[in-house]
Design goal:
Layout: E1 9-16, E2 22-28, E3 39-45, H1 52-67, H2 73-78, E4 79-84, H3 89-94, H4 127-142, E5 147-151, H5 172-196, H6 198-214, H7 219-248, H8 256-269, H9 276-281, H10 306-309, E6 318-327, E7 330-339, H11 345-365, H12 373-401, H13 415-426, H14 433-450, H15 459-465
Helix pairs in contact: 5-6, 5-7, 6-7, 6-12, 11-12, 11-13, 12-13
């Protein structure tokens, strides 16, 4: 607006923050067209000062309405946008969730207000929430608000009414259709991820299972939205793989079905010999080598199975491979170093503690509300982490007992879940902070001792360590 006048935009202040900062609003529409035939859309962002991308998304929507996909004459003649990108400028300056009075503005509105620690002294007790609510009331009285959207960050979900109860909102069907459309865009991202690595498919299974069993709304809605997501992932995956095979495929892998057949046949060829039971209990000797069990523990002289992933196995060194690339124009060679012992056993053992605690809390709180919204959000994250860990682990245990070779690095897909669960457990208010620091020191010490690369240490110290 400083660069040039914009005939379709007005910048106004709807109020001020605790510390006197303006709460700016951008109003965008074709002002020459009567509002009677328009749909009014109200968007705000930045309720939580440390959610930077929530504010940035609202600003991006301003750009789209001024110069992008929403700025066409047809769009501006049909829609009237009111966008308030930053509700909490004071919190943004202090990089904290609450405002300058340490109140969560998103919990300070009048509808279903609850008297909790950071919800304020009463409904709309804060100037920011009161100004925003008052602004919406004025617009709603003048023309009605057809769609309200508030932008946040912190989790990749689209939340629609109601959030305070399991009852459906009057316009639940419309809100569900909007959410399903966004859900399909998520499927595009997962489809592209699945083209890169099976990790994308595994995470999709985790999210689909969590949404189906623990998501909001009725079971039939959760199931149908999950099915829509899976179908969109499959479509993107199939089309992408077909394009790749058409351009770069060789042999039988020149079509989507040919590539899938090759993947399945290759997977089926990774069989243990002589048997799963033998790989579980046999010990390697100098005269009898175990073959086909997967990765061997060079210290314990036993095969590393999925059961070792959650108990113990010795450190694994680097896998060094000489790679030569040749072409019609020449070639080159390089050395590839792969580290396959990715699991921090100290972090894995913590799963026995936080996993049991999450199950206990899950059973205890069924049908009961948590004391605070933060406690509820943290628990949902921990429950998601537990489901993630179990699905990955159980999947590979099943493959192992069906005779499939399972390498230790497969477990890397569960490492983020292990970290989330451990962080949840150690950050509880009842957990002694001193012990939490000791546990964290143990995690880093384990990594330091067992990670094979010690080149960053002085040579004499490395020699003393045996490296």
């Amino acid at each position: 607006m400083n660069r040039r006048p914009l005939k379709n935009a007005k910048l106004t202040s709807i109020g001020k923050s605790v510390q006197g900062r303006e709460l700016w609003q951008m109003e965008i529409t074709d002002f020459s067209v009567d509002d009677a035939g328009k749909l009014t859309i109200y968007i705000d962002g930045g309720h939580h000062g440390n959610e930077q991308l929530g504010m940035e998304l609202a600003v991006q929507l301003v750009h789209e309405a001024l110069e992008g996909a929403l700025s066409s004459p047809e769009m501006l003649a049909r829609y009237h946008f009111f966008i308030v990108p930053m509700i909490n400028p004071d919190g943004n300056m202090m990089d904290q969730r609450q405002n300058a009075h340490n109140v969560d503005l998103n919990r300070n509105y009048g509808f279903e207000w609850t008297n909790e620690a950071d919800h304020g002294s009463g409904p709309e007790s804060e100037p920011e929430s009161h100004s925003n609510a008052n602004n919406m009331r004025k617009i709603d009285t003048a023309s009605g608000i057809d769609l309200y959207l508030t932008t946040h960050t912190g989790t990749n979900i689209l939340i629609y009414s109601w959030a305070y109860t399991l009852d459906s909102a009057p316009d639940d069907a419309l809100l569900y259709r909007i959410g399903s459309a966004a859900n399909n865009l998520t499927g595009v991202a997962f489809g592209l991820s699945a083209l890169s690595k099976e990790t994308g498919i595994m995470l999709l299974l985790v999210l689909a299972a969590y949404h189906t069993f623990f998501g909001e709304g009725r079971l039939i809605q959760r199931f149908s939205s999950t099915l829509g997501l899976v179908l969109s992932v499959f479509l993107v995956f199939a089309v992408g793989l077909q394009v790749y095979d058409s351009l770069f495929g060789a042999g039988s892998a020149t079509t989507f079905l040919g590539q899938i057949d090759f993947i399945l046949r290759y997977g089926a060829s990774l069989k243990m010999t002589p048997s799963t039971q033998y790989c579980l209990f046999a010990v390697q000797t100098t005269t009898s080598k175990i073959t086909g069990c997967g990765w061997m523990d060079s210290v314990l002289n036993t095969a590393i199975t999925p059961l070792n992933w959650v108990t113990y196995y010795s450190p694994i060194g680097y896998l060094i491979t000489n790679v030569t690339v040749t072409s019609a124009n020449g070639g080159y060679s390089y050395v590839a170093a792969g580290y396959y012992g990715i699991t921090n056993q100290f972090e894995v053992w913590l799963a026995y503690l936080w996993g049991a605690y999450v199950v206990y809390l899950w059973r205890k709180t069924r049908g009961v509300q948590f004391d605070t919204d933060t406690d509820a959000r943290d628990f949902r994250l921990a429950r998601f982490a537990l489901l993630w860990f179990l699905i990955v682990f159980v999947a590979y245990v099943a493959l192992f007992f069906f005779g499939r070779v399972t390498y230790p690095y497969y477990f890397i897909q569960a490492v983020p879940a292990l970290a989330m669960g451990a962080a949840y457990f150690l950050s509880r208010s009842w957990f002694p902070q001193g012990i939490a620091y000791i546990v964290l020191a143990g995690v880093f010490l384990w990594f330091f001792i067992f990670y094979p690369d010690k080149s960053f240490l002085p040579e004499q110290f490395r020699a003393w360590l045996g490296h």
